[in-house]
Amino acid sequence: MAERPIVLGVQPCGESADPGRLLERVTLTARGVDVLFLVDPPEPVAGPAPLDALAIATRVAPGVPGTGLVPQVPVTGGDPVALHDAVAALDAASLGRAGWEAVVTAPVAPTPSGELWAEAAEVVEVAHRLRAGGGTGFSGEFVQVQGRIPVPRSPQGEPVVVVRADAPEALTVAARSADVVRISAGTVAEAAMRRLDVEGAAAEAGRDPGTLRVLVDVGVGTGDGLHHSGSAGLASLARELAGAGADGVVFLPARPRGLEKVADDVVPLLRAHRTPLRTLRERFGLAIPAAGLAVSPG
Question: What is the pLDDT of residue 296?
């Protein structure tokens, strides 16, 4: 079997995360970046609230036809069916290039992290069931969904589910339900150890660790974890991480123009060309889920 090429992702900083700037400044199809990870823009001091990351991704999808789109999506305290339908709209707009990164947000009252991630696990399970055609409803501790008509399946079977495993509770959800796990680390050796933690947790959850993909965050310029300011250094760091078992990297530019630095200067050092992206699952080398198969909540 041919070795999978390293997946190259980038997450724009908040200042460059609105649709207009993304379309003006980034032509990622020609520049070789595989996946765009989007976060909600900063709340303005005055004026209307900006579009959230999911709405931004849906709007820019036609303008970046060769690139995967993975917005962060809060999964606590909302309607899981509405969330599923919004992600499905992105998947349709992108012709199967969509994913979504499940994140938890605490309400006004302090809530234990374990409780937030337990709710997140149920929301992800509902998404799996709805996408698999399991329209019989779901009743959990935090989420109740009445039966509904199944939606048409995506070209990739189901949008890619991403979870950042920064906390033990998040790692549990990632190991059980995610397709792609994001991690951060201070060294390449630590990143390798954290990947082993992910694989061990997946095995404990009854999954084949080979069905998971692990991406490592890399700061561009500055960062709390792995980072580098030079293009050659960033490319070298990505190669080291791939050699240590990472399936890909997510570059985190500290400034808006960091997008161009990654696309124009770093990516060409890592590969001369990119195979055209048909679906995001295909890019990650993930299998298409079987119709009617629901993932067990464990």
Answer: 35
Residue 144 pairs in a beta bridge with 139
What phi and psi values does residue 239 have, to the nearest 5 degrees?
A: -65, -40
Amino acid at 17: A
In sign, the C-alpha dihedral spanning 272, 274, 275, 281 is positive
Q: What is the pLDDT of residues 263-293, one digit of tens each?
A: 889 999 998 777 767 899 999 999 887 654 3
The CATH number of the structural domain formed by 7-77+161-284 is: 3.20.20.30
How far apart are alpha carbons 162 and 283 in whole angstroms? 14
Q: For the chain, which residues make up each domain, given as ranges?
A: 7-77+161-284
How far apart, in whole angstroms, are the C-alpha atoms of residue 75 and residue 89?
17
Confidence of residue 297 (pLDDT cuts 50, 70, 90): very low
Q: How many helices (H) and strands (E) does the chain have?
A: 11, 11
Counting every residue written for the chain, the total comes to 298
